[in-house]
Amino acid sequence: MARAHPEQRKPMKVIGINGSPRPTGNTSIMLKTVFEMLEQEGIETELIQVGGTDIKGCRACYACISNKNSKCSTKDGFNEIFEKMVKANGMILGSPVYFADITPELKALIDRAGFVSRTNGQLFRHKVGASVISLRRGGGVHAYDSINHLLQICQMFMVGSTYWNLGFGGRDGGEVVNDTEGMDNMCDLGKSMAFLLKKLNAS
Ligand SMILES: Cc1cc2nc3c(=O)[nH]c(=O)nc-3n(C[C@H](O)[C@H](O)[C@H](O)COP(=O)(O)O)c2cc1C
């Protein structure tokens, strides 16, 4: 089969999922910083808000196994988000730390997306993924690991950076911009993600 000329290839897309109930807080600032680097490399981005929504946890009905239609049987907006995850070349999952872990909304998405993708032929296989965590003081690496469990069991390529992908910010929601190391880390993460996506898309 003839290879598509680089100019003719469909633009790549990365989606960011914000697990914070605050759409303009620290986590969203971090995700948007990664996006800036991706966009500079011609990669499309879309931010999806999950925190603060009524997304439900997995009901363990196992309909995704029996139906094999790449859908979850719970109708609460999950399937629309899941479809975007499946179509994207890459995804960044972001969460603030809540009691040393991720938010319940992001956990609900991870449980259901992980199950539906894995029971329908590993739909996330060979996508690029990264985790981003904002926190005030402690529990960041544990929360970071919570997201990475999804990436690693779904045959995804996980992108890291110069430190674990953490940014420090507090209650006002926006202080993370003062965490120079954290923000530099986000820029580097975006560049590395673009680098990997281009390598994967080159063949
Ligand atoms: C319910 C709740 C629990 C929190 N637990 C922690 C925690 O365990 N460790 C921590 O460092 N920060 C904790 N925080 C602070 C947030 O993680 C932190 O301010 C984060 O940057 C907020 O991100 P956002 O602006 O995107 O919502 C907590 C905040 C809330 C509301």
Concise synopsis of the structure shown:
This protein is of the alpha/beta class and 203 residues long. It has helices spanning 26-40, 63-67, 78-87, 104-118, 140-153, 180-201; strands spanning 13-18, 44-49, 90-96, 128-135, 157-158, 166-168. Strand 1 (13-18), helix 1 (26-40) and strand 2 form a beta-alpha-beta unit.
How does this structure look, described?
This protein is an alpha/beta fold. It has a single domain, classed as Flavodoxin domain (Rossmann fold). It is 40% helix and 16% strand. The protein has 6 helices and 6 strands. Strands 1, 2, 3, 4, 5 and 6 form a 6-stranded parallel sheet that branches. Strand 1, helix 1 and strand 2 form a beta-alpha-beta unit. The longest helix is centred in the last third of the chain and has 22 residues. It is globular and about 50 Å long. The protein starts with 12 loop residues before the first strand and ends with a helix. The mean pLDDT is 95. The site of flavin mononucleotide (FMN) has 20 residues, from helix 1 and strand 4.
